[in-house]
Automatic annotation (TrEMBL):
This is MerR family transcriptional regulator. Residues 1-68 form the HTH merR-type domain. InterPro entries: DNA-bd_dom_put_sf (IPR009061), MerR-type_HTH_dom (IPR000551), MerR_fam (IPR047057). Pfam families: MerR_1. The chain crosses the membrane at residues 164-180, 186-207. PANTHER family: HTH MERR-TYPE DOMAIN-CONTAINING PROTEIN, REDOX-CYCLING DRUG-SENSING TRANSCRIPTIONAL ACTIVATOR SOXR. GO terms for molecular function: DNA binding; DNA-binding transcription factor activity. The keyword Membrane applies. The keyword Transferase does not apply.
Length: 233
């Protein structure tokens, strides 16, 4: 299935899917034209990632589960202990908020030292450390996203650049063969479009990008993902 179909069926935004691929948690096959071809197994894997990430399981733990270096029961036991600590730490927040309300504290007269000392005190038995270090499990973390690296206009200019390179190659070839390229401008334009339709999928399949994409800020994400997967293999 395509990236769009994968996004629709899983309910996971494409930016998150790309992030999990870059982290090595997903490794979809590539079709003949170089585009991703997700399988049903990829969909099931993504749904597992979605569930466990929403439960607060870390990327490192997911990677250990994938590699067989950890058991799900052990990961969940650790997460349950963390949740208990988070609840205990949030109890401090509740107490401090209650104290501030009972004393009628105002912003101008607030003495933060006393209350910060309460929040920063060493963890008591059952607490999991400072509460603000714990990520919310209500949704996929915002950190599970790779930045957008290419706009539609940049992709257009990148494709125009690639087409220009192809035409230059055709002109150079005609010159080497002793032909005058100015007499075949229309034929060169048509041949450039056809040749680009062949070379672009081939370049995407082999390198994950084309010459024009990096020049316009596109294609680096694809190249980094492909390099990352190759290094992990």
């Amino acid at each position: 299935m395509t990236s769009k179909e994968m996004e629709a069926r899983s309910g996971v935004p494409r930016a998150n899917i790309r992030y999990y691929e870059a982290e090595g948690l997903l490794a979809p096959a590539r079709s003949g034209n170089g585009y991703r071809d997700y399988s049903e197994e990829d969909l099931r894997t993504l749904e597992k990632i979605k569930l466990l990430r929403r439960l607060g399981v870390t990327i490192e733990a997911l990677r250990a589960l994938r590699d067989g270096r950890a058991e799900l029961s052990a990961v969940l036991d650790r997460r349950l202990a963390e949740v208990g600590g988070e609840q205990a730490a949030l109890g401090r927040v509740e107490r401090v908020c209650g104290d501030l309300r009972r004393t009628g504290a105002t912003f101008t007269g607030l003495d933060p030292g006393r209350y910060l000392a309460d929040l920063d005190a060493p963890a008591l038995p059952g607490e999991g450390g400072p509460w603000w270090e714990k990520a919310s499990a209500s949704a996929l973390p915002e950190t599970d996203r790779l930045p957008t690296v290419c706009s539609a206009s940049r992709r257009l200019f990148a494709r125009m650049f690639d087409e220009m390179l192809v035409r230059m190659l055709l002109v150079a070839g005609l010159c080497l063969l002793g032909y005058n390229p100015t007499r075949a401008a229309l034929a060169i334009s048509f041949a450039g479009v056809v040749l680009l339709g062949v070379l672009e999928p081939l370049s995407l399949h082999l390198w994950g990008t084309t010459p024009g994409r990096p020049c316009w800020g596109c294609g680096w994400l694809e190249w980094m993902e492909k390099t990352s997967h190759t290094a992990r293999a």
